Every structure is written in C-alpha cells, then in structure tokens.
From TrEMBL:
Segments for region (Disordered): 153-177, 195-226
Database matches in CDD domains: vWA_collagen (cd01472)
Function: Promotes matrix assembly and cell adhesiveness. Plays a role in spinal cord formation by regulating the proliferation and differentiation of neural stem cells.
Protein name stated in the entry: Vitrin
Database matches in InterPro entries: ECM_Assembly_Org, LCCL, LCCL_sf, VWF_A, vWFA_dom_sf
Keywords, alphabetical: Disulfide bond, Extracellular matrix, Glycoprotein, Neurogenesis, Repeat, Secreted, Signal
SMART domains, sorted: LCCL, VWA
Signal peptide bounds: 1-26
Low complexity compositional bias, start-end: 195-214
GO BP terms, alphabetized: extracellular matrix organization; nervous system development; positive regulation of cell-substrate adhesion
Subcellular location: Secreted, Extracellular space, Extracellular matrix
Domain LCCL per the UniProt entry, residue ranges: 40-133
Compositionally biased tracts (Polar residues): 153-168
Taxonomic placement: Eukaryota, Metazoa, Chordata, Craniata, Vertebrata
Length: 671
C-alpha cells in the first residue's frame, strides 16, 4: 500500500512538472507573438508636486496654463520636491505656457533653494528640503523603460482624479529589461521546490534594491493562502521595495506588500504643511507702498492698483530674511493698513491687500510722504536696522498738495522714494497741477531709475518686473546711504608735548562725541585713528572695529604720546595707512585736530588728500595757525576749518561739524 501511495505522489509531481514546463514553453511562444505595447506618456495637472510622485525618473505631459502664480515653485534649476512639476518646467525654460512633454529626474535634497523670476514664473526661496528634482527635455535614454503610469504616494492624487491609473510602488526596471509579474504557477513552483532538494537560482545582487523603504506591519494574522493570492499581480522580488539580494521571500510569514494609498513615514512628516519661505535674502528691504485712494481714481482703477500690489508681493518673495512690505493709503489723510511685521509671507500679504477698501477724498501725496517718514519706519512697526527703507508712491494723475519739501526730508532720513505715475495731466489739465514736475522733485535721483510713468492703468502690469528689479538693487538705492552711515572717517590727532595729558583726554572726548553720532558697522560708517608727533602711529584702522561700543572703547584706550608737531607727515601717513584701505563706495572724511603750527610743510600733503577725494576738516586749538588750517581744509575753508581758543570749548563744535558733513552730503546732485 505504501508503495502504491509513493508511486501516486511521484506521478502527481511528474504531471505537475510536465504542466509547468508546458506552460512556460507556451508563455514563451505567446510572448514572441505579442508586440511590445507602445509607450504612453502619462498626463498630469499643473498642481501636481514632484514629492507626490514616487518614481525616481519619469516622462510626463503637462497641460497649458502652468505659468499661473497659484502653482508654487521653490528654487532655481534644482527645485524642491514640494514644487509644481509643470510650473517648474516653465520656470526652467524647458516648457512654455502651452505645455508639452518633459523628463523629470529626482536628485538629493538641498540645504537651501534660491528663488528667482524666470520665463513668467516667480519661484520662491526655501531654507532646505528633503528631496529635489531637475527638469530636462523629454529625450528618453536608450534601453531605459519609463513608466506609462506614475506611482503616487497617495491614492487621492490629482492625476488619479484626471483619470490616470495609480498603482503600488514599483522600482524602475533595469536598463534593457522589463519587469515581469509573478504568476500563481510560479508561486506553486516555489512551494514544490521547498519540498525538494532542488535549489532555485538566486536573483543577481546588481538587480536587487540597494535602498530599503519602510513598510507597514500586518494587522493581525493573515493566512498563507491569503498572502499567496494577494501577491499574484505583484512584481518579482528583485523589483520589490525592501528586497534583499539573494532572497525571494514572497511567501515569508508576516510580510505585507506595499499597497495603494500607503504613505511612507518620511512623506507623512512633510505633507501636512506647505513650506513657508523665509524671503529672498538678496532683496532685504523694508518697503512701504503709498497707494492712491482718492475719489478721482474710481473703483475699477482702484481694483487694478490692488491687483498690481498683490503681484508685487508675489514677485518679491516676502519673508523675514528678505523683503518686508506694508501699505499706507492716502486721500485727504494717510492711514496705515498694515505695517512691516503684520504679514511675513507673500500669500498672507495678497489676502490682506484684497480686503483693502477705498478711502476717497483728495490726493494729498506730500502729507502721506511726511506721515511715512515720521511714523512708518520705526522699530515698533518692524523696521530693521541695516535694511534700506523704500517708499513706492502710486499717483493717479497728479497730487493735490506739494511733495518737494516732504520728499527732501524723507531722503535726508534715508528713505528711497520711487514714484509710479499713471495717466498724467493732458495739456488742458496742466493748469490744475499744484506742483509741475513733482515726481523729479521727489525721487532720490532724477536719472529715471526712481520714476516710472504709465500712460494707462491697463498698462500698469508692464512696470512690475522693472520695479521689483530696481527696489531690490541695493547698490543703487542711493537714499539709503545717508550722511551718517556711508563714510570712512579718519581722525588725525595731535599728541605733541604742548597738548598735555589733561587736554589730550579732552580731545579724545571730542572724537568720541563726534563718533557717537554715526551709524557704525562693517557696511555703514567706519572709524579709524592716527596719533602723531614727530612720528606717526596707527591707533586703529577702519577694519579693526565694527560696532559703536567697540569704537568708543578703543578711543578711550588711546594713550598720550608726547613729542613734536609734524602735521604734513601725519597727513601723508593717514593717506597711506588709513585711506588706502577705504571702501570705494564710502565717502572719505579726515578730521584733523592740532594745537600748534607744524614743523613741516602741509601744502603738498593737503593737496594730495584733496586730489584723492578725501574731504578734510581742520580743527585748531590755542596756538594753531589759522592759515595752515585753511590750507589743510577742503574748499570752501569756512565750512571745513574751525578754530577754538581753549580745549574745553571743543565740545561746542561737535554739532557744527556733524551739520556741515550732512549738509555737504545732502547737497550732492540728484542725477
């Protein structure tokens, strides 16, 4: 009986193997007859983000209209995976707004992404993101099979809504190969093989996955039969995420395959909230828009003005590390709608701008500029030291009050004024204009950089990019360079025997009192000092200290030297040791304090200083020679040379020196 049973089992196994071989042969013959299906390029919508697509490299077709700013892009050339795929393609120049096919390749995450404006798309900055991608022309590589259906991290993908098939994750096939499904017959063959000493060939290590992905653990016990049937359409182990080289664990107890809708842990941690840009660090300005709310503008043009503001907010990439923006509306009187710290990103700004109501009244621009100068740029309103203050004034027609004096005071306070004038006065209306040529009287420079004119409100959008570019051009924001933050000041101090220790401390207090009035930093005013007798000594250079407390402490530490008086040699020494290291964009100021006649000639050194653009102030005490002071001082001497009979009266000239420095600075041509 045992012999009969064994014979029957052997017959069954033999029949099964015959069927298996026949099936494999039949499959091969069928495969020869079936032509490879033509590759279909998947289509996606404009709002699909690269991070939602698991495939590491794929070709897709984008629709038209992805240039719309509502589709966010982060980065330039290399984009954060939170970006819209198709909008990034337009930004990169691979596509235009009409859409088309692109090749997308995932790359490593970056430590930072820089925003930029390109091809009608404003991308945003981002500090860091876990994954990136690049966009290329849709030229497939030879031997590489691209997916006809994309794999999404969530079953509720936008592409799925558009009718595209969503499937479980599947690694891209090895170049030159095609992933084959594991059939039920193949699984049965594995089961039979486990009962026999036959060894099945292992997958090649090169074909195995090198990266493991987290997989969900089974909930409760699943029978082997259920596992077997659930894997009948899954790919072989060499294509399965998490597969190890040399293993085929399709029936391993407890294993669960990735199924539709599974979101890996690292995806879950980043999908809940959209990254907030910190702003473009290359455009760190504090910006106030003065918008026209007068009755003459009308409701329609007021809406156009608000849309323009919203577009500017989007293009600027607002954030705490970049530009900040507030809005003041003027009519009869100005009123602040929100200040610099109210809204810290572009999207919130756009929402707030949409809610601004029109005030009506006259068009009192001068009053509004005065209001902004006195009230808007304060620390309480979010003003940042070191960030240029910029006001953009929008005027429909012409102002109903004068702007020149208010603008002059704003410029002298370091406010950069831009004017956008729309639909100016025609010939028969010019008689009503209160102040002809008002824009040129108001702006920081009259060379056209600070003023933009538009013939019609419907052409206002054309000024968007020129305005954004100019507002962010820190090197040309001339008014942010005031008399107090734009100089290299070198003090040349007489330390001769006739001065004495007590009077020398009085001179140092005079130097301290002047220095305290300036904004001191690496990028603002810098202070240096030389002491001289017969010889010269560099006490500290312009690059030694970069804060006001450090400068004031350094002045206190200067020790009295004592000796003769060689003022000419001291001027030459200061030119070589101090001003040779002055920055090109700084005004060079030399303030020389002496109490006597020089033992050497001062004419040639003084002329050398004047020729090198060093503005020289000469301050004489007690026995100083008036004619020498006038030779040393820059022309006109009456504004640059001062004489005081006693050291104790030096303090009286602190405000006079500061005032003359600022008056001279502010009288520079504005062209």
């Amino acid at each position: 009986m045992r012999t009969v049973v064994l014979t029957m089992k052997a017959s069954v196994i033999e029949m099964f193997l015959v069927l298996l071989v026949t099936g494999v042969h039949s499959n091969k013959e069928t495969a020869k007859k079936i032509k490879r299906p033509k590759f279909t390029v998947p289509q996606i919508n404009c709002d699909v983000k690269a991070g939602k697509i698991i495939n590491p490299e794929f070709i897709v077709k984008c629709p038209a209209g992805c240039q719309d700013p509502k589709y966010h892009v982060y980065g330039t050339d290399v984009y954060a995976s939170y970006s819209s795929v198709c909008s990034a393609a337009v930004h990169s120049g691979v596509l235009d707004n009409s859409g088309g096919k692109i090749l997308v390749r995932k790359v490593a995450g970056q430590s930072g992404y820089k925003g930029s404006y390109s091809n009608g798309v404003q991308s945003l900055s981002l500090p860091r993101w876990r994954e990136s991608f690049i966009v290329l022309e849709s030229k497939p590589k030879k031997g590489v099979t691209y997916p006809s259906a994309l794999t999404y991290s969530s079953s509720k993908s936008p592409a799925a809504q558009a009718g595209e098939t969503t499937k479980a994750y599947q690694r891209p096939p090895i170049p030159g190969t095609t992933a084959q499904p594991v059939t039920l017959m193949q699984l049965l063959a594995v089961t039979v093989a486990e009962a026999t000493p036959t060894t099945l060939p292992r997958p090649s290590p090169s074909a195995a996955s090198t990266t493991s992905r987290p997989r969900p653990q089974p909930m409760g016990h699943r029978s082997q039969e259920m596992d077997l049937w659930s894997t009948t359409t899954y790919t072989s182990s060499q294509n399965r995420p998490g597969a190890n080289p040399g293993e085929m664990d399709l029936l391993k107890p407890g294993s669960v395959l990735l199924d539709e809708g599974f979101v890996p842990k690292e995806e879950l941690s980043t999908q809940s909230s959209e990254p907030v840009s910190l702003g473009d660090p290359n455009c760190k300005v504090d910006l106030s828009f003065l918008i026209d709310g007068s009755a003459s503008i009308g409701k329609r043009r007021f809406r156009i003005q608000k849309q323009f503001l919203a577009d500017v907010a989007q293009a600027l990439d607002v954030g705490p590390a970049g530009p900040l923006m507030g809005v003041v509306q003027y009519g009869d009187n100005p009123a602040t709608h929100f200040n610099l710290k109210t809204h810290m990103n572009s999207q919130d700004l756009k929402t707030a701008i949409e809610k601004i109501p029109q005030r009506g009244g006259l068009s009192n621009v001068g009053r509004a500029i005065s209001f902004v100068t006195k009230n808007f740029f304060s620390k309480a309103n979010g003003n940042r030291s070191g960030a240029p203050n910029v006001v953009v004034v929008m005027v429909d027609g012409w102002p109903t009050d004068k702007v020149e004096e208010a603008s002059r005071l704003a410029r002298e306070s370091g406010v950069n004024i831009f004017f956008i004038t729309i639909e100016g006065a025609v010939e028969n209306e010019k008689q009503y204009v209160v102040e002809p040529n008002f824009a040129n009287k108001a702006v920081c420079r009259t060379n056209g950089f600070y003023s933009l004119h538009v013939q019609s409100w419907f052409g206002l959008h054309k000024t968007l990019q020129p305005l954004v570019k100019r507002v962010c051009d820190m090197d040309r924001l001339a008014c942010s360079k005031t008399c107090l933050n734009s100089a290299d000041i070198g003090f040349v101090i007489d330390g001769s025997s006739s001065v004495g220790t007590g009077n020398f401390r009085t001179v140092l207090q005079f130097v301290t009192n002047i220095s305290k009035e300036f904004e001191i930093s690496d990028t603002d005013t810098r202070i240096g000092a030389v002491q001289y007798t017969y010889e010269q000594r560099l006490e500290f250079g312009f690059d030694k200290y970069s804060s006001k407390p450090d400068i004031l402490n350094a002045i206190k530490r200067v020790g009295y030297w004592s000796g003769g008086t060689s003022t000419g040699a001291a001027i030459n020494f200061a030119l070589e040791q101090l001003f040779m290291k002055s920055k090109p964009n700084k005004r060079k100021l030399m303030i020389l304090i002496t109490d006597g006649r020089s033992y050497d000639d001062v004419r040639i050194p003084a002329m050398a200083a004047h020729l090198k653009g060093v503005i020289t102030y000469a301050i004489g005490v007690a026995w100083a020679a008036q004619e020498e002071l006038e030779v040393i001082a820059t022309h006109p001497a009456r504004d640059h040379s001062f004489f005081v009979d006693e050291f104790d009266n030096l303090y009286q000239y602190v405000s006079r020196v500061i005032q003359n420095i600022c008056t001279e600075f502010n009288s520079q041509p504005r062209n």
